[in-house]
Amino acid sequence: MNDHRQTGIGMTSQRTRDRLIRRLAQNGIHNEQVLAAMASVPRHLFVDEAFAHRAYEDTALPIGSGQTISQPYVVALMTQTLLNEKRQRILELGTGSGYQAAVLSRIVTKVFSVERYRSLHQRADELLRSLKYRNVRCLHADGFGGWPEQGPFDGIIVTAAPPSLPETLFDQLEVGGRLVAPVGGDESQELWAIDRTRTGYVEQVIEKVRFVPLLGGIVRG
C-alpha cells in the first residue's frame, strides 16, 4: 500500500471524515456506536486510489467488477437498523471492498462475509487483514447459500438487492435475530428489516434505496 495513502490523504481525510460524521448525525443516524465506527474506519483505504480524494463524500463509488462501495449514509443506516439491539455474530452477503464488514467489526464480536467475485474477495480479505480487523472472516462463495457452517447468526446484512430473499438465509437466522436487506428489481427497491420471532417473522420497510443486484453463482476472475 502506497505511503501517501496513509499520510497525505489520511491526514487531510480526518477533517472531511469528521464533516461526514456530522452530516450522518444530522440525517438521522443516532446510534453512537455506529457513528464512532464510521469515524474510525479509513474509507479512503477501501476505494480505488483514483477515488481516494472522494472517499468521504456521501456517495457510492466504483470498486471494480461492476460493483460499488455503498454511500456512507446507506452503510450507517443499514448498520443502525441491523443493530437495533446488541448482536454478536453477523453474516454479510456481498463483501465488496470490505468497508461494511470493517464498520460492523468495530461493534460486534464476529463478522462472516461472503463475496462471489474472487478478485473482490481477495482484495478485501488482504486489506482487512493488513488493517488488523481480526474478527472478520471472508469467504469466496455464492452469497445465495449464506455460510451455513458458521451459522446460525443473530444478524444478517445483504449489501446487494435480490428480487426476493433466499429461504436459505432465514434458515441461518436465529430466533431473535434480524435480517436487513434491500429487496426489489431495477425499477424499485426497498430496504427491509425482518425479525425472526418464535412464531414467525415481522417485516418493516425502512426506506427506498438503490443497490446493484444480488446475483447467484461465483466469479473466479
Strand content: 25-35%
CATH topology of the domain at 58-208: the name is: Rossmann fold
The ordered string of helix (H) and strand (E) elements is HHHEEHEHEHEEHEEE
The CATH class of the domain at 58-208, by name, is Alpha Beta
Multimeric organization = single chain
Provide mean pLDDT, rounded: 92
Number of strands: 9
How large is the radius of gyration?
Answer: 16 Å
How would you write the strand order of the largest sheet?
A: 5-4-3-6-7-8-9
Architecture (CATH level 2) name of the domain at 58-208? 3-Layer(aba) Sandwich
Could you give a short account of the major beta sheet?
7 strands, mixed
Estimate the global geometry from the Cα principal axes.
Answer: globular
Count of DSSP helices? 7
Q: Helical percent range? A: 25-40%
Estimated structural class: alpha/beta
- CATH H level, superfamily name of the domain at 58-208: Vaccinia Virus protein VP39
**Straight-line N-to-C gap:** 22 Å
Low-confidence stretches: 1-8
